[in-house]
Amino acid sequence: MTATPYQQMVFLNLPVNDLDASKKFFTELGYSINAQFSDENAASVVISDTIVAMLLTKPFYSTFTKKDIADATTTSEVLICLSAESREKVDELVEKAAAAGGTVSDKVQDPGFMYGRAFDDLDGHTWEVVWMDPAALAG
To answer: Any bridge partners for residue 118, and if so which?
Structure first.
């Protein structure tokens, strides 16, 4: 019997102003909340089998760092990029974000082999969504 290969995961720890509003925002995008790792201080948002966004209240987030917490509405601390399976799926996720109260960037990346758009969540964290033509990836 062969052991299943280890799948490295990514956990994005993001400070949020209103945990309930942020949970609602991400569930409206189609993601689920893992209740096992969520409480009044944090919500575990399952993006995929290997990507989890941990939404942390600012007081709880501050217990993990001595640094000031960036105001993502005025300072860029990170650009989070998610892949999408098609151009249509890029547009679908970005439009869901807009409908849920996110701010959509008017900049569209479309050099032909790639298509991307971006939105900011309720706390100003920037999420890029990108589709790449599989033929272009093959070389």
So the answer is: 128
